[in-house]
Amino acid sequence: MDPIPEIEKKSALEIKLFQEKKLKELLTYVNANSVYYKNLFKVNSINISSINTIEDLAKIPVTTKDDLHKFNKDFICSGAKIIDYVTTSGTLGDPLTFALTNNDLERLAYNENISLACAGGTKEDVYQLMTTLDRRFMAGLAYFLGIKQMGAGVIRVGNGMPEFQWDTVARLNPTIAIAVPSFILKLIEFAEQNNISYKSSSIKKIVCIGESIRNEDFSLNTLGKRIKEKWDVELYSTYASTEMGAAFTECKAGKGGHHHPELLIVEFLDENNKPVKSGEAGELTVTTLGVEGMPLLRFKTGDICISHSEPCSCGRTTMRLSPIIGRKQQMIKFKGTSLYPPSLYDILNNVSYVKNYIVEVHTNDIGTDEISITIGVNDPPVNFEKELKDHFRAKLRVAPNIKTDTPENISKLQLPEMSRKAITFFDRRKTI
User: Domain of 393?
Assistant: First the structure.
C-alpha cells in the first residue's frame, strides 16, 4: 500500500477542484445541522449556493475562539450521534469542548495514520506513547487510533516518569517515541545520571509534539540541536490542534509539515482577514472537511506561520506549513520591539545552567508590556543575570527582567493541577 494518499500527489488544480466539491457538501451539511452556522448565514444574508470556489469562502465571516467559547454547544450538529467528548488544553483560556462521532474518530485515526507514515512510520514499528490518553485529551487518543489503524504496535506509557519510560524501552524495544521535545532532554539527563545506554537503545525516531524543534528556515532550533547533540535520533516535527482534528507532519526532508487536503481547506490571513501574499506570514485559518460532530468554517487558529508550495522530494505536492512563528494572542510589544515567546525560549534553551523556566508578561504602570522570566537553576555562575541579559540584547535588542527559583518549584508552576502539558508562558496583561 502506498503510504501517500493519491490526492496528496495531485496537481494544485486537481486538489482545488477536489476541495471545492467537498466544500459544497460541507456547506449543505452545516446549513442543515449547525445552529451556529445556520444563524450566521441568515444574519449575514449568505446564500450558500453562491459559494462554489475556495475564493468564495471569503464571503463567510471567520470563526474565532471567542465564538467557540460563547456559542460552544451551538456548533454541535443536530442528529450527530456523539461518541466521544474532548476538550482543548486551555493554554490561552478556558478549555473548549469538542464532540466527535464515530466517523470523526475514524477521520482522526486516518489523519494520524497518514501523518505518522509521512514521518516514515510503518506497521513494523512499535511506538512508545509519552503523552496522556485520559483527561479528555484528543492528541493521545488520536495517536493511539492512528497507530492501531496503521497496524503498528503501541505502548501507552503516558507522560513524565523518566525511570518508567526507560524501563519500558528496555523491556519492550519500541522503535519510535512520540513526545514533547523538552521532555526528551529530561529523558537524556536521567539516562546519563543513571548510566543508561540511551544512544544504543531501540528508539531510532522521535515524533516531536507540542513544541517546535525548527527555525523558520527549517534548520534545527536550539531545542532541536540540544537533542541531536546528545542523541543522534531522527527527529520529526508535527503540529496539530483539537479544533482541526488533523495534523501537519514532516517527512524525512524536514521542510515543513505536510497538508492533508482531504481533511482541511487552509487559508493564511492578515489582521483584516485578507489573504497574505505568497511567502508572507499569516494566521493559519482552517475549514474542516469530513467532520460530523463540530465542523468549522474559516476557523482562525491564532497561530502565525508561512506556507510553502514547491513540491517536496518525498513525492507529495501538497502545501507545507512552516514552524509556528508565534501565537497571535501571545505577541509582546516590549520596549519598541514586537516578539513572540518562542524567540525567548530559543535563547533560554541554549544556556546550559538554565534547567527550566517560565515567562510572564504583564502591563506596567505606563500601560506597556513588561517581561519577567524566572529560571530554574541550582548553581548559577557569577554575573549570570548580566550574561543572560547580554544574550537577549544580542539576539532581540532588548532584555527582560530575570529572577531565579529552584527547578523543582518551576516544574510545579509549569504543571498546575490537572494540566495535561507544561505551561511556560503566562499572560497577565490587563485586558480592556
Answer: 331-428
Which residue's C-alpha cell is 501565537? Answer: 327
Amino acid at 27: L
Tens digit of each residue's pLDDT (9 = 90 or more) over 297-327: 999 998 999 999 998 999 999 999 999 887 7
Strands (E), 263-409: 264-269, 282-288, 299-305, 307-308, 320-321, 326-327, 332-334, 337-339, 356-363, 369-376, 401-405
Other Cβ atoms within 10 Å of 319 Cβ, number: 21
* The total number of structural domains that make up the chain: 2
Check which CATH number belongs to the domain holding 49 and give it.
3.40.50.12780
The whole-model pTM stands at: 0.81
Task: Give the integer Cα–Cα distance in Å for 369 and 337.
Answer: 10
Q: Which of 267, 300, 327 is the last residue of a domain?
A: 327
Number of H helices, E strands in the chain: 11, 21
Between 419 and 206, whose confidence is greater?
Answer: 206
Short-list 422, 327, 344, CA closest to 388:
344
Question: Where do runs of H (alpha helix) occur along 34-101?
Answer: 35-43, 65-70
Within this chain, do residues 224 and 260 fall inside the same structural domain, yes or no?
Answer: yes
pLDDT digits (tens, 9 = 90+) for 26-45: 999 999 999 999 999 999 99
Pairing of strands 307-308, 320-321: antiparallel
Burial of 58 (0-12, 13-18, 19+ CB in 10 A): middle
Q: What are the residues whose beta carbons fall under 8 Å from the beta carbon of 109, sequence distance 6 or more?
A: 142, 145, 146, 148, 149
Tens-place pLDDT, residues 241-282: 889 999 999 999 999 999 999 999 999 999 899 999 988 999
H or E element, residue 237: strand 234-241
CATH (domain of 341) = 3.30.300.30
Mean pLDDT value across the chain: 90
